[in-house]
Amino acid sequence: MRCVIARFPFELTKSGVLESMKGVKPEPVTGESVIIGRRHYPAKQVGQVITRQNRRDFSAAEVLRAMAQLGFTCRALPKAAPLGIPGSLQHASAMRGTLVKV
Predict the structure, then answer these.
(1) Cα(51)–Cα(58) distance, rounded to whole angstroms?
(2) What pairs with residue 73 in β-bridges?
(3) In what order do the strands lie in the sheet with 33-36?
(4) What is this structure's pTM?
(5) What's the per-residue H, E or C state across the chain?
(6) What are the two backbone dihedrals, phi and then psi, of residue 101, each rounded to the nearest 5 degrees?
(7) What is the C-alpha separation between 78 and 66, in angstroms, rounded?
(8) What is the rounded distance in angstroms from the CA atom of residue 91 to the CA atom of residue 99?
(9) Among 32, 35, 94, 96, whose Cα sits 20 to 30 Å from the Cα of 57?
(10) Which residues are 5's β-sheet partners?
(11) Matching InterPro entries, A to Z (predicted)?
């Protein structure tokens, strides 16, 4: 499949991406990620490996779009919990009548 990442065209295949990522240790995921095999890789790490470009040259969205078109599972940046909603510990302590702040 032809896709454009950082204004450069690439011919990518699912098997080619699997081969490129074989043996690559995943970095800790802190944002958008791609599941390749059974491993979760940061989108920027995948983009760097398959394009051999600097991570500053492309966006995670470009990589996610290309990987989704190839059939890989992509995860977006998780949304933070809204403030003011108590967690389970705060809820339980409120039910007992004592409020615990974490």
Answers:
(1) 10
(2) 35
(3) 39-42, 33-36, 73-75
(4) 0.72
(5) CEEEECCEEEECCHHHHHHHHCCCCCCCCCCCEEEECCEEEEHHHHHHHHHCCCHHHCCHHHHHHHHHHHCCEEECCCCCCCCCCCCHHHHHHHHHCCCCCC
(6) -100, 130
(7) 20
(8) 8
(9) 35
(10) 8
(11) SCO5918-like
Query: What pLDDT, on a 0 to 100 scale, did the predictor assign at position 52?
Result: 93
| Structure tokens belonging to residue 45 | 């790490």
Token reading at 29 = 């995921």
Residue 77 structure tokens: 């940046």
Taken as a whole, the chain contains a residue count of 102
Angle between helices 60-70 and 14-21 (to 10 degrees): 120
Report in angstroms the alpha-carbon separations of 63 from 87, 92, 97.
Answer: 34, 42, 50
- State both tokens at 75: 């995860």
